[in-house]
Amino acid sequence: MKDIFIYVMIIAGSALMAYNIYRYVCFSRDVRKHGNWDRERKLFNIPICLLIMFFAGYLIVGFFGNPDLVMAGILFGGSIFVFVMLLLMRRTFDRIQENEQLEVKLSAAEEANKAKTFFLSNMSHDIRTPLNAIIGYTTLANHEEVTYDEKSEYIDKIEMASRQLLDIVNDVLDMSRIESGKFSLEPTCVNLESCMQEACDLVKVQLEAKAIELSVSCDVTNKWVMCDKVMLDRALMNLLCNAGKFTEENGSVSLQLTELAAGDETGSYEIRIKDTGIGMSPEFAERLFIPFERERTSTVSRIQGTGLGLAITKNIVDMMGGDITVRTEKGKGTEFTITVDFPLVEPEEETCFNEGDGISFEDMRALLVEDNMVNMEIAQMLLDQEGFLVETAENGKIALEMTAASEPGYYDVILMDIQMPVMDGYTATKAIRDLPDAGLAGIPIIAMTANAFQEDIKKAEEVGMNGHIAKPLDIPSMKATLQQVLLSGPKAH
């Protein structure tokens, strides 16, 4: 019985030692993956050799020797000791890894906190600047002794500051969507030549005010491509507006589009935007595309901006699979170069919309659906000025009831807010489209909302809306959308 007990301990100790060898091999692999252990590589092999020697000793003693109870106890106890030590080493290593991960998370949290503080500091400055102008000029315009010309000048400056504030909000929202991964491209068939010309037309007035010469040239054979026109326009506008802001009076800005190469399906294009402005230092040029970065000089500090425009532009170009580079010299101007490949498509028949081709809004009846009284008052006055007869509803449910109770043709168009109590704009639109009377179900409905992202425009189209007008209201854009929708006729039911 005693001999059986001795051999049981030796066999159990041998099996445990074999398991210890396996555990140590796995442990040493994990440790080597965790860091650079080149100098200690040989040291890792020493314990394995010793454990194998112990294991061989157990087998020799057990099967070829004459072990007693003391020898068996020592061998079995040694196996348990090695097992416990390996277990403690494993636990210690896991704790070290956990601490390192916590340190990484703490460092990331500290960096995020610094970024948040930096962001709030920039936003506080950049938002307060146009707000100060709006509040200040509003106060001045309300003084009794102000002349008509002075009041008109103040209103113009209030409008300019309001647009600056809107640009800041748009930049912040776009940057937020980019960082959260919600920013995506929606390619359509685009005429690149027209796109370049339209971008220049939009900044023409701004540049002419400073007597800056603007030139555009296009050297392309394949001008029709698939790309996201809205995002391409945004990138071009950011670069052109920057060129205008940082170029002194009587300077020049140029935009050049060149087709570098073309295959059967893809064309390679280069877009150059060059100015004769103040230029940048080499140090700042390296940080140019980092969000909120602005060069700290007396000249730049006087120019309004968030430091987000170029970061957004870089992200847009990256999503298009292109590349953007900059060449600049202090006092001698800046040149941005975008190189990008676009899929080629067959030319589309181009249609031009002239103002003379439009229709008059005089005596047309519009149903304005808006829950905010200030927004309702502003929109109603703007529509009144265009000749509309305006009726109002405070939410989608009331709008649905008013539409269902009307005769076909009574309302020419419905301008529908989206976020409203009782019934939102999407639900109301679906309900109107489901009305049994085809004349009522087909009334043109336009979203008039602050939900102005691309996915919001797409959702408005999916629920049956004919168009989208973003708030704050831009009068020319609003008129163009109304013209387009009303000329297109009722929505098919």
What does this structure look like?
The protein has 15 helices and 12 strands. The chain is of the alpha/beta class and 493 residues long. The protein folds into 4 domains: 2-106; 119-179, Signal transduction histidine kinase, dimerisation/phosphotransfer (DHp) domain (Helix Hairpins, Orthogonal Bundle); 190-343, Heat Shock Protein 90; 355-488, Response regulator (Rossmann fold). Strands 2-4-5-7-6 form a 5-stranded mixed sheet, with helices on one face. The model is unreliable at 298-302 (pLDDT under 50).
Report mean pLDDT, rounded to a whole number.
84
Q: What is the H-and-E element order?
A: HHHHEHEEHEEHHHEEEHEHEHHEHEH
Query: Could you give the count of β-strands?
Result: 12
How many angstroms separate the termini?
Answer: 95 Å
At the fourth level of CATH, the homologous superfamily of the largest domain is Histidine kinase-like ATPase, C-terminal domain
Count of DSSP H/I helices: 15
Oligomer: single chain
